[in-house]
Amino acid sequence: MGAIWMVLTDRKKLAKLMVIQDVSQRELAKAAGWKSHSYLGRLLRGEVNTLDLEPAVRIAMYLQVGTDDLFMSRSSSDSRRNAKRLVAA
């Protein structure tokens, strides 16, 4: 079994939920289990789009939405399948 991570599917939706619920970057980063809010800022700016499974679940729970409303899961086995498809083509 490969490593699992999450991909933020819509950074604008995340930002909108934060505004609607009056949640700051620092507050949400703390809820995610991060010591700093800098990575959340990078997610919101679109500089990065991946994060570990646990912070993604914590963020969704804190904002009271389903994990799949904000994130899509990926695994290293997904990468291997895509590579095999490319080689086979």
From TrEMBL:
Top-level taxon of the source organism: Bacteria
HTH cro/C1-type domain sequence ranges: 14-70
CDD domains for the chain: HTH_XRE
Protein name: Transcriptional regulator with XRE-family HTH domain
